[in-house]
Each structure stands twice: as C-alpha cells, then as structure tokens.
Design goal:
205 residues, alpha/beta, 6-stranded mixed beta sheet, two-stranded antiparallel ribbon, 7 helices, globular
C-alpha cells in the first residue's frame, strides 16, 4: 500500500491469503475463503469504490475466478495484474493448476500485466534467454487478453531493461542495477505505482 500515498492516491486492500514471511523466505500460506474475498471486494467497492485495481498473490484457481468475477461485476476496467508466482526466495506462491485460470479468467480483464522473466516464461510457455525471446514472449502473452505487457528485466544479466509491448512497438525502459539486499516486494511496488498513476488519469503509454 505504501506506493499509493507516495503517488498521491488512497489505497485499500483485499486480503486473499495470510502469509508468514520475512525478507528471506515464505514460511506459511493460509488462503482466505473465496466467499470472504468476494465480500471484501464488495465491501470496498460498495463504499469507497476504486478508480482502478491491481492484483498480487492469487494462489488458487478458485481465488482467481472469484476475483475475476467481482472485477467484472463492478466494472473495473483499469486492472493491473502482477502475476505473482514464485517469491525471490524460490517459494512457490501459485498452485500449478492455477496458471490456466490466470490465463483464461484474469488476463482477459487486464489493462496491464507485469510479469518478471520467470513469470513471463510460464505465461508465454517458452524460455526467455535473449532480448528477442523477451519480445516473442511479449507477443504471446496478449493472446490471453492483456492489452499491455511489461516484462521486467531484473532477472536478466547486466543492467536491467524492462520491455513494454502494446501490440505494436517494443520500447525498452533501461534501468540501473543497484547492489542491495532490499529487493523483497519490488514487483508489488512497481505494479502498485502503475495502478496509482492510472488512477490519477495518466495514460498507460
């Protein structure tokens, strides 16, 4: 939630799982029941509302389908999907059988999807080991429905570059690799900052 006030908007949250974790590892995951998740979304939308939304860890097919159902019911159009699959520690955060639900139910509702390279490999069903492979993966992912793909380059060698694809061009956003251990939650922060600026009315590209 911190990127929201940092960008001048007010954020609310819907818990889909309770995790025991620190910056090193995920120790345990307890999924929130689907009926509670649905009521959380209805509670927020029926009172405060939202100009857009982002998703994070959605660990099971039934949770993904519940979120997709409520996104459609409330007409949330500016949806940013951070397809959280594996923590940096290597702990798996998405059930193997949930990938099809992610592709089939949630990505068609997305304005922007922000996979890192390992997540893009799963979504595109291919290995990404070159810049051309990143572009091919970016071509494949919108086939599931997402309008804009941002493949984050943090897992690549050397200075990281994020690749953006909107169905036409493939602009690269060059970045600087910072020598730090404080990388826990960087993908969540990135997607939240995108959602915050969409809420402020900025165009995605």
């Amino acid at each position: 939630l911190k990127p929201y006030p940092a960008n001048g908007v007010y954020g609310t949250s819907v818990l889909t799982a309770v995790t025991a974790q620190n910056t090193l590892e995920v120790l345990a995951i307890a999924e929130v029941p689907e009926e509670v998740i649905a009521l959380e979304i209805d509670g927020v939308m029926g009172d405060i509302g939202a100009d857009d939304a982002k998703t994070g860890m959605l660990s099971s097919p039934s949770i993904i389908e519940t979120v997709a159902d409520r996104v459609e019911a409330w007409g949330i159009h500016n949806l940013v999907i951070d397809p959280v699959m594996v923590a940096k520690s290597g702990d798996r955060l998405l059930h193997e059988n949930a990938v099809a639900s992610l592709r089939g139910k949630l990505l068609p509702l997305a304005m922007i999807v922000t996979p890192n390279i390992p997540e893009a490999e799963v979504l595109a069903e291919m290995t990404i080991d070159t810049e051309e492979a990143m572009r091919e993966a970016a071509r494949r992912i919108p086939a599931a429905g997402a309008k804009i793909v941002v493949i984050k380059g943090g897992h690549s060698e050397g200075a990281p570059s994020d690749l953006v694809f909107d169905g036409g061009e493939f602009p690269l956003l060059p970045g600087e690799r910072i020598d730090t251990r404080n990388t826990h939650g960087t993908g969540c922060t990135f997607s939240a900052a995108i959602a915050a600026n969409l809420a402020l009315g900025l165009e995605p590209l």
